[in-house]
């Protein structure tokens, strides 16, 4: 089943390992300490929709924003992201009056509310739809950053006022976006659809594809590549419309013609696997993937990764095996922040795979990129590195090993659950707690981990009574690869990959 690509944040940095060395007198600070919150993607609803009318605006008694005529000139296609979106800058001439700003000690900066009021006053006066659209986007952005105080017994009214103020701002922005969308303003149509799809300005902040899909279609008709791609995903998955693969292909091809990397990638995968009603055609699939890779962005780096995998194993009569080029493609995707590519490169530089030299610094660097985005295998790989450290690159730290194992375990990695249980049982990087250890062993055993089940057998199991002990050895290779935590000495990689458990 094709997984809808999600937007990813770039995490391209080389950590200063020595700077992050844990101090005995304070809580240790790891390389990119695992965040406490995880991203949650809301589930999409399936429902029918009422088609929007793409006719001219009827001027329904709005005396605030003067009515606009239907626009005949096509708008330049541009991507409007869901996080923080800015329309093109307004034409020459200041949109805000900065005459109140004075040099020296008397200088005064605009407050947030004053900025909003001045922006609103200028938006009222102008008939430029682009400026009105920019103001609407500004209000949506402002609503996301509005401070909402933490609720206590004594400030309930203050919290309610702050929430109401934020909701009013969103309501005003959505009303303006609707007017512009009804008048045929393509960026407003797409941005409004994107708001509905992300639960902005909707009932109880729920995704509303009933209203999002027809607006994606309208913007797609006006030549908006992102809108065509999003309409294709709706048709493919039945979001706000019936599931129709043929229509999805039409929208994807319309977006692909404009060089949209997401649409090109989806068509490439469909051709490779024979999805969406298409017959298998590896040759055509590779063509789409190559075009997508040429247009790859931080939001759509997927084709780079897929092409790397194809070059790693080769495709009969289509692609030859080329490890060096595969590693180059993975590096490009990793630098765009794509976690699976970064993790794969981390493995390559750790074990010398695909022609890459064994390089601890590069291995840790790429694992870090992936781990910062909660890639659970990368988190557990950092656990293994921290257990033994790397001279001149990474200081050994049992505490960090435990924290990254905990991060991976909470993300659902079974071998990490067993490792956390073991760390808690023995007291590696954390205070010993048999009660918590048993809980993690149970979670791992429930998902089929035989070692966890063995350690749960009770006092009759001598390993459970006195695990570890002075001179016991943790094999890093086994921890990182197969997920085993061995207490015996020797073994593969024992010379430089073992960690003595004291």
Overall description:
The structure is a single chain. Helix content is 51%, strand content 2%. By secondary structure, the chain is an all-alpha fold. The protein has a two-stranded antiparallel sheet with strand order 1-2. Helix 12 (339-351) packs antiparallel against helix 13 and helix 14 packs antiparallel against helix 15 (398-410). The longest helix is centred in the middle third of the chain and has 27 residues, at 156-182. Residues 1-97 are annotated as: Disordered. Residues 64-73 have a biased composition (Low complexity).
Structural features:
Serine Threonine Protein Phosphatase 5, Tetratricopeptide repeat, disordered C terminus, globular, 21 helices, 502 residues, two-stranded antiparallel sheet, mainly alpha
């Amino acid at each position: 089943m094709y997984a809808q690509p999600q937007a990813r944040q770039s995490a391209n940095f080389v950590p200063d390992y020595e700077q992050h060395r844990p101090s005995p007198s304070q809580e240790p600070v790891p390389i990119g300490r695992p965040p406490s919150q995880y991203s949650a993607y809301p589930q999409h609803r399936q429902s029918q929709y009422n088609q929007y009318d793409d006719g001219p605006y009827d001027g329904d008694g709005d005396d605030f924003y003067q009515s606009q005529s239907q626009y005949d000139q096509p708008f330049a296609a541009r991507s409007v992201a869901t996080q923080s979106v800015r329309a093109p800058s307004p034409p020459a001439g200041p949109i805000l009056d900065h005459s109140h700003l004075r040099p020296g000690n008397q200088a005064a900066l605009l407050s947030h509310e004053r900025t909003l009021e001045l922006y609103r006053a200028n938006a009222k006066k102008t008939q430029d739809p682009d400026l009105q659209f920019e103001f609407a986007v500004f209000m949506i952005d402002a609503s996301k950053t509005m401070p909402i105080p933490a609720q206590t017994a004594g400030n309930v009214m203050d919290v309610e006022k702050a929430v109401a103020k934020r909701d009013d701002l969103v309501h005003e922005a959505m009303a303006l976006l609707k007017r512009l969308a009804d008048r045929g303003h393509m960026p407003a149509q797409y941005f409004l659809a994107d708001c509905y799809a992300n639960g902005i300005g909707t009932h109880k902040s729920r995704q509303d594809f009933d209203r999002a899909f027809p607006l994606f279609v309208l913007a797609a008709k006006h030549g908006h590549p992102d809108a065509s791609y999003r309409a294709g995903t709706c048709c493919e998955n039945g979001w706000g419309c019936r599931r129709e693969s043929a229509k999805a292909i039409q929208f994807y091809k319309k977006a692909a013609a404009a060089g949209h990397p997401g649409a090109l990638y989806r068509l490439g995968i469909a051709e490779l696997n024979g999805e969406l009603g298409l017959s298998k055609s590896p040759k055509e699939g590779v063509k789409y993937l190559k075009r997508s890779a040429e247009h790859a962005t931080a939001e759509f780096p997927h084709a780079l990764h897929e092409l790397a995998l194809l070059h790693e194993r080769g495709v009969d009569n289509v692609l030859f095996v080329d490890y060096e080029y595969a590693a180059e493609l993975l590096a490009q995707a990793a630098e765009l922040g794509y976690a699976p590519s970064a993790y794969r490169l981390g493995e390559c530089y750790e074990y010398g795979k695909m022609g890459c030299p064994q390089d601890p610094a590069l291995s840790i660097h790429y694992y870090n990129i992936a781990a910062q985005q909660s890639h659970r295998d990368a988190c557990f790989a950092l656990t293994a590195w921290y257990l033994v450290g790397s001279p001149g690159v990474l200081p050994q730290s049992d505490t960090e090993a435990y924290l990254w194992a905990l991060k991976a375990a909470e993300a659902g990695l079974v071998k990490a659950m067993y490792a956390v249980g073991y760390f808690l049982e023995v007291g590696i990087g954390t205070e010993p707690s048999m009660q918590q250890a048993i809980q993690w062993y149970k979670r791992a055993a429930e998902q089929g981990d035989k070692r966890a089940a063995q350690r749960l057998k009770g006092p009759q199991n001598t390993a459970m009574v006195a695990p570890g002990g002075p001179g016991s050895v943790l094999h890093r290779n086994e921890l990182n690869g197969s997920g085993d935590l061995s207490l015996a000495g020797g073994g593969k990689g024992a010379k430089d990959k073992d960690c003595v458990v004291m």
